[in-house]
Amino acid sequence: MFAHEDQVPLATLATHQPTLREFDVGQNGFLPSDLPLTILPDAYYKPWETVIHQLSELIHGRELRAKVERLPVLSVDHLHTTPEWRRAYLILSFLAHGYVWGGDKPSEILPPSITVPLLEVSTHLDLPPVATYAALNLWNFTSSSPQLTSPDALHALHTFTGTEDESWFYIISVAMEAQGAVIMPFMLEALKAAGRKDYLTIAVALDDLSSCIRQLKSLLGRMYEKCNPQVFFHQIRPFLAGSKNMGPAGLPRGVYYDEGDGKGDWIQLRGGSNGQSSLIQFLDVVLGVEHVASGNSTPEPECGGGEMSFHEEVRAYMPGPHRRFLEQIANRGSIRDLVTQLGNSPEEQTLREAFQAATRTLADFRNKHLEIVARYITIPARKHASGAAGKVNLASTLSGEYGVAGEKIQELTGTGGTALLPFLKQVRDDTVRAGNTQCPTGALSS
User: Fold this and answer.
1) pLDDT class for 154, splitting at 50, 70, 90?
2) In the structure, what pLDDT confidence band is assigned to residue 394 with cuts at 50, 70 and 90?
3) Span of 128-142, 206-220, 365-379, 404-418 with lowest mean pLDDT
4) SS3 per-residue string spanning 390-444
5) CB atoms within 10 A of CB 336
6) In order of start, what are the domains of the chain with their CATH numbers?
């Protein structure tokens, strides 16, 4: 088990320990407590392991689709432990995205050799049958050190491109998840303290949270070190796309999950995105940041007609226990609920200032994310780089989004199917707005 030296052991938080274990939240937060498996132990799954270990070469040689079509439809009966189910999900979702996007044109049909076991594994893990953040990041790393907050010690188990750029892209998120794990027990204590109006405990926890978010921002800023924007945009990013809002990229109906014998369904799902990080949503829930943007390709200022916000929708793309953990925390109320009702005593003013500082720090983190998006997506999309020539995918579609006169042809779309820039700006603005505590939003439930 990998524990952080500077983290309070969960054993000291006896009232929370059973709850955290129940929701699969451990010393590493939403990351596994033990390193993910590098191979399925039962030799029955050797056909899967052979292909996943050759994935980048097979994609590069345009051989993956033929290889996948020759795979037998394997049973999931030989999967026994949670790490084994997770690795099966990782393998099958990587193969699915490699199959769909690994040609000059996307494949609209996923063959039974992938569809059948992927649907079963996804149901078991309470996840959608697509490459989620969990598959790409949470369960797709190894480490040479027990200190998971250092990206230099981490490496992705599998990539589509075989590049260091892609591995670095994934493990920056892994390091951020590990860093965020440090603050989670303290914020849970802060929520308890809010119920008894222990202002000092909450203020100290918020100061620690601000420090943690600054560390997350610093880790995000390290993306530039080993992930080239052109490599990311043209080689890596297309494989992360899902099938929702991907008509311009070649999937107008989504993907047909062929189960064989005439059985199957057309499915549209969002691709992997950092919006599926339970850690980031945990910070929002604790602070009381509310998001209304739907994240659809044509965003509306408000989610009318009962439409879920993007953040509510993508909880279905998180591992089931993590989703239920966030729901339980949200039901307790937020620190903002308490702050909006504070008076003007010195202790209350200190708490108010700590809360406002934390929301500003989270907004700064989201500004950094916007900066990353500009460098890795917006700018490459305007360059019409030759790397995407002849292909139909998310990169080639967006490379042509600006005409020769600079006129805008279409909105930038994220791998999760969102209208990227308007959505991210709205999320940032929602965070800033949460820091305005003049109007009460309701009492904190005890």
Assistant:
1) very high
2) low
3) 404-418
4) CCCCHHHHHHCCECCCCCECCCCECCCCCEHHHHHHHHHHHHHHHCCCCCCCCCC
5) 25
6) 29-175+261-271 (1.20.58.1320)
Please give the C-alpha separations between residue 179 and each of 14, 153, 175, in angstroms, as whole numbers: 22, 14, 6
**pTM score, whole prediction:** 0.86
Q: Tens of pLDDT along 36-56?
A: 999 999 999 999 999 999 999
Contact assessment for residue 186 and residue 209, using Cβ atoms and an 8 Å cutoff: yes
Contacts of 396 (CB under 8 A, 6+ apart): 238, 249, 388, 389
- pLDDT-derived band at 342 (thresholds 50, 70, 90) equals confident
Place of tokens 């949270």: 209
Query: For residue 416, what are the contacts with CB-CB under 8 A and spacing of at least 6?
Result: 242, 270, 271, 272, 273, 275, 276, 295, 310, 314
Tokens of 292: 């209304």
Main-chain dihedrals φ then ψ at residue 156, nearest 5 degrees: -70, 140
Q: How far is CA 131 from CA 86, 88, 243, 270, in A?
A: 12, 12, 11, 9
Report yes or no: 10 and 20 within 8 Å, Cβ to Cβ.
yes
* Nearest CA among 159, 182, 178, 173 for reference residue 223: 173
Contact 167, 197 (CB under 8 A): no
| pLDDT interval class at 203 (50, 70, 90) | very high
Bridge partners (DSSP) listed for residue 263: 260
Binding positions for heme b are: 369
Percent of the chain residues topping a pLDDT of 70:
82
H helices of 251-377, in order, are 278-287, 310-313, 320-331, 335-339, 346-373
Residue 184 to residue 285: CA distance in whole angstroms:
12
Residue ranges for the known binding site are 369
With 70 as the cut, is the pLDDT of residue 303 above it? no
First to last CA, the chain: 33
CA distances from 223 to 232, 260, 305, 377 (A): 11, 42, 39, 13
Residue of 365, 344, 374 whose CA lies nearest to 437: 344
Q: Please tell me what DSSP assigns to residue 43.
A: G
354 contacts 207 by C-beta, under 8 angstroms: yes
CA–CA separation, 100 vs 120, rounded Å?
19
Q: Which helix (H) or strand (E) segment is 89 a member of?
A: helix 82-101
With 0-12 / 13-18 / 19 or more C-beta atoms within 10 angstroms meaning exposed / middle / buried, residue 7 is: middle
